[in-house]
Amino acid sequence: MPDVFHNIGILAHVDSGKTTLTEQLLYLTGAIRSLGSVDAGTAATDSLSVEKQRGISVRTATASTRWNDVTINIIDTPGHIDFAGEVERALSALDYAVVIVSAVEGVRAHTENILKSLDAAKLPRIIFINKTDRTGADTSKVIRELKSVSSQPHIVLSQIENEGTEHTKVKSIDPETFRQTATEALADICDEAAEAFLCDEFLPFERADELVRKEISSCSLTPVIFGSAKYSIGIKELADTLVRYMPDSSRRATEDLCGIIFKIEHNKTLGKVSHVRLFGGEIANRDEVELFAPEEKLTVASDAVEIEAKPPVKEKVSQIKKFCGSKSTDVGIVIGGDVAAVCGLPGAKTGHFIGSLAVSENAKLVNPFLRVRVTPSDADPLKVPQLAAALGELSDEEPYIDAKWENGQKEITISTTGKIQLEVLSNLLKERYDLSAEFSPPTVIYKETPSAKGFAKARYTMPKPCWAVVEFLFEPMPRGYGVSYHGRLPSNQCFYRYQSHIRTSFNTCLEQGLYGWEVTDFKCTLVGGEHHTIHTHPLDFFVCTPMAFMNGLSEIGSTILEPLLKIRVTAPEELSGKIFSEIVKMGGEYDTPVIRSGIATLEAIVPVATSMNFPERLATISSGKAVLSQSFYGYRECRDGEEHINPRRGVNPLDRSKWILWARGAYQSE
Known about the structure:
Elements: E1 5-12, H1 18-28, H2 49-54, E2 61-67, E3 70-76, H3 84-91, E4 96-102, H4 109-121, E5 125-130, H5 139-149, E6 154-156, E7 158-161, E8 169-172, H6 175-186, H7 191-198, H8 205-217, E9 222-226, H9 235-245, E10 258-267, E11 271-280, E12 282-284, E13 288-292, E14 299-300, E15 313-316, E16 319-324, E17 327-330, E18 333-335, E19 339-343, E20 353-354, E21 370-376, H10 384-397, E22 412-416, H11 419-433, E23 437-439, E24 443-444, E25 447-450, E26 454-460, E27 468-476, E28 483-486, H12 496-509, E29 518-519, E30 522-531, H13 540-556, E31 558-572, H14 576-585, E32 589-590, E33 594-596, E34 599-607, H15 608-611, H16 614-622, E35 627-637, H17 656-663
Parallel strand pairs: 1-3, 1-4, 4-5, 5-9, 6-9, 14-28, 25-29, 28-30
Antiparallel strand pairs: 2-3, 7-8, 10-11, 10-20, 11-19, 12-18, 13-15, 13-20, 16-17, 16-19, 21-22, 21-23, 21-24, 25-31, 26-27, 27-30, 31-34, 31-35, 32-34, 33-34
Helix pairs in contact: 6-7, 6-8, 12-13
């Protein structure tokens, strides 16, 4: 009998009970002998000291178990918005997600983001409505909220008694109730069920069972289970539902070797450990595997010259292990459909592919909008390179940190999504590298975009031997467009290999614009270029392209874009006026509040720059009675009238003489 694998992710808003549910599933299936506690710091999947101290998950953790002859690989993800990047990368490894929603707090903003990302990634999901034992639990209300934020119909596969009390009970629905529930749930998406429903009939049990499984796998139907992870209520019903109705790894299988690295960690004994979801093929100890970086984010039109293909990196596997939190066992081989930890790949990074490119794209859950400067605590300049190397290694694990440092600079900059992430970084630097770091107050990460349509060009023909001419057309596009690249010149005007160099260099240019911010939301077309058969050196277009790029922004101007947050505040109705006043002060835009039973729910879009202290102000004006949730919304033209400048790394191509010397390795920037 072939192996059957289910690779599942436990996803939810913070404090919804993800790690507790993982613990209960591992205990039920016999993977652990005793139940740990999140609050006591003894949960199997919380291994970092900061996780044990704070009682929250900050890193994705994996655990493997078996239930009814099915191998279930559980990926427990953090719930705090600061670590949404961990969730985003886990999506690429999943067959489906278990989304936990509190029966008391209901659907929170981050839960909405998760559901939208699952929709974009075309991943099935099952909803576990947790904490049904708590006072105020209202599963009917939660299901209504789920229907309002998701277009998928839901099918409730369990029954609950004594909801909101310590005597709550959950059991699976009986076969006759299942026939009725399945027929009603499928009626809107299945002609066969619709016909039965209109005739006041129910589908036969076997057919209803088959159709429910099929529609869940195709992301057209979402099952719902009730329970309380804390008191082990509904856990067996959930496990049975997973193996009966949710899709296995064959849904995303490939014939050839193909896998994705969804997590990297550094182990004192094992070195770099790459956690891999394998879609097809197999990897064994001592095998050589090829690593591929993700495809570039730049949207490239079909009329553009292809990037010159680089030979894939080949590295040898030293060990293959299975992890359950911090504990591991040697397995020696991993086959398609399974998850394992592969050791011995020094060039691996989170998001890299093994064997071939991954089978699908996934949606973004997070967009870091804050940046901080990092310096050694004792201000010793000799420790800066060591600190930069450590942060670079941590960037392999969490790419959104995006540590940047130019040799010779006295400080490093990193991206962050919040204070808790900085606390975790500080803890890791001390524990792993024995380094103490100081973090500056966070500053907002702005972006910029060309202000108008115009040309960007440069001629690099002196000092000889050199010859490169580049000309672009920049066209501003709507917010959220990103960047697209177009244009192909005749080969006798500019060799295709040089046009490949131009495109490669252009992609790097996007990192720093006129004001030092990432450049976005425009269309670039290569409209002119020239080489010389004698004088052109292969690297000339890497020198010329940044000069053309910056000349263009200097000529047509660059508009600063500011990041926005979507906030939702739930508070007593009488506080609405004060909250509206705060939103107006922040330069926010708000909708009409929804008021139910004296409780007002307000939604608004506010600039990040003016709202960084809003959680503290809200807690003060509401005496802690208001509940705030927030998520990244997007960018818009900056309205504060200020010229926000980000110090440039390296030499500015607008300083032509210095740039040419620096690009040719004849000048060191300060």
